[in-house]
Amino acid sequence: MTVRRVDLEQPPLEVLSKGRNATKADVTVHRLMSTLDARTDSPRDSEGTLVVLKDFSARGPLVRATLARFSTAREARAYAQLSGLRGIPGFMGRVGGTALTTAFVPGRSLRDVPRRSLPPSFFTDLERLIASVHARGVALTDLHHRNVIVREDDGSPVLVDFSLAMVRPAAWNPIGRWFFDQAQRLDRLAFERIRERYMAPAGGKSVSPGTSPAPARRPLRYPQLACPGPPAQPASVTRARSPSP
Questions:
Q1: 62 with 76: CB under 8 angstroms?
Q2: Burial class of residue 2 (count of CB atoms within 10 Å of its CB; 0-12, 13-18, 19+)
Q3: Which of 41, 109, 112, 123 is the most exposed place for a label (fewest CB within 10 A)?
Q4: For position 48, what pLDDT does the model report?
Q5: How far is CA 127 from the centre of its chain?
Q6: Closest C-alpha to 151, from 43, 18, 3, 1
């Protein structure tokens, strides 16, 4: 299906990520207009279908004309290659040349999960998911804690953000194939780092699949500036005086 900008209710229900710099997209959650609800498998809330919009339209004209179009096209190609794979949000189409939409997956990213708190089964599933992505001819190249989601309903892993993904080049491009093999290798190394940081130790407390782990901190729905408190005052020290001669 094709989602147009006018099909998305405004303002967004939630801001997942405000472009962190002049080259990053804004990522927001929207409700689809009711006329499109019956044409999508995206989850619904009590009032309609929810989708994620990844949008470069607020960036400068140079970024919109170059990086935004390249990144959006690259990510759309990866999503198309992974269509129907469990653990990958459904792709719902591009919105012009500088934005795209995917199905919204309720859950939390690993950055909002306490370290060393997830069960081994989560990482078994994540490793299989990454292997399935590779088998479809896609390498993420930028796997990290922000683009791994713990699904809310069953605790299974979901991968998002394929803006830097690489699709396997044709056989006549051996140099491209070599770079693709290295990109897959980087994915596997990144997985090992993630598992080391977030898997509960043997015999330690973990979160069972199907339950949402308690956040290490309350996730910020909108960017906020940290307001440091007043500097701590050094403790006073009483020095013993030496007796007068």
A1: no
A2: exposed
A3: 41
A4: 62
A5: 16
A6: 43
Q: What region does 153 belong to: left with phi over 0, alpha with psi -120 to 50, or beta?
A: alpha
**Distance, CA of 182 to CA of 188 (rounded, Å):** 10
Q: Which two tokens stand for residue 103?
A: 């199905």
Given a cut of 50, is residue 222 above it in pLDDT?
Answer: no
pTM (2 decimals)?
0.77
pLDDT beyond 70 at 99: yes
Q: Give the right CATH number for 8-103 from 3.90.870.40, 3.30.200.20, 3.30.450.40, 3.10.180.10.
A: 3.30.200.20
Tokens 């500036």, residue located: 225
Write down the H helix ranges in the chain. Answer: 61-65, 67-81, 120-135, 174-198
CB atoms under 10 Å from CB of 141, counted, come to 18
CATH architecture of residue range(s) 107-198: Orthogonal Bundle (1.10)
**In the chain, which residues fall in CATH 1.10.510.10?**
107-198
Q: Is the predicted pLDDT of residue 78 greater than 80, yes or no?
A: yes
244 in Cβ contact with 156 (< 8 Å): no
Q: What is the dihedral of CA 141, 21, 19, 228, to 10 degrees?
A: 110
In the chain, residues under CATH classification 3.30.200.20 are 8-103
